[in-house]
Amino acid sequence: MIPSYDTVNCWLPRDYIKDAAQENCILDKLSNVGHSYKESTGHTQYGQLGNLALTITERRISIRGSLCKYYYGDNLHPLNLNDTKLAIEKLSDNLLLPIGNAQVSRLDLASNISMQHPVSLYLHYLGLAKSYTRLENPKSVTYNKSNLKLSFYDKVAEMKQKKITMPPAVRLMHLLRYEMSYIKQIDKQLKRNVTVGILYQPAFYHSIVDHWHKGYLAILKERSIRIGSTGLDIIDNPRLLGELALIKTYGGVMATLEALEEAKQLKPYTDKRRTAASRLSRRVKELASHSEYTFQSPLIDELDQKIAEAVNYALLQ
User: Fold this and answer.
1) Please, which residues bridge with residue 35 across strands?
2) Distance between CA 266 and CA 16 in Å, rounded?
3) What pLDDT, in 10s, does the model give residues 13-61?
4) Distance (Å, rounded) from C-alpha 64 to C-alpha 10?
5) Which of 41, 114, 181, 226 could cysteine-pair with 149, CB 3.0–4.6 Å?
6) Whole-prediction pTM
7) d(CA 163, CA 128)
């Protein structure tokens, strides 16, 4: 399934609402309309347009929520570029505002990937990623880096937990959702001005898909050790055998790297300990990337292929 836009938070200057009549016309389109006042921000009007939250302050008109859910009613079905354009036009028509001119403040790109086995089995093999903080839960793995987040989770389990209605066939699927979220400062991250109107332009979409793909590739995948495998001449190399045994003892590459990172923080801090731990970490990563001593799980082979297929389909947009 192609990566498509999900959450698109955006805003327009308040000047786009010319008078009270236009504001009232917009508010009439909303449900759960309310009003608040703070001395620091002034008057605020707010309400819902379907799944989207709309806020009108004295300075801005802000829209938050899933563009995919707004258009389709769920985020199981991907928005292709033409549907993205139609969804933006629909939103513009409903609000009588040029939403294409709105500045994007958050952007999520995601794909629901149908796998052969339960999602939790694949999550186990998603290891560390340079410059990201990894957080693992029973049904998800997330990677955080300043204003960017990568999320991998069981989509069907999430929908069941939230009691969201889904087709019977979907309930039986193993859907692994990979989501990349530009949380804030998207212009700075992408080194360009990002407005809603460029989301359906092929060149921009392809660049975002490329970032999505690189995010996945940046993750170190857990590999299994080949100790005792036929054709490996490691018995006569005690040091290599010891290194591989160490990784196996700790439960894999990721667990070994985490233990070494913890060792750096043990008191009393010494440069000697930190240098030794860093050197061994580099060695573990070197061995993990060596196909003669380690091998990749068939589950990751499958996920690699599905991610690559999603990217290739996206580039045809």
Assistant:
1) 45
2) 57
3) 999 998 889 999 999 999 999 988 888 778 899 999 999 999 999 999 9
4) 7
5) 181
6) 0.84
7) 32
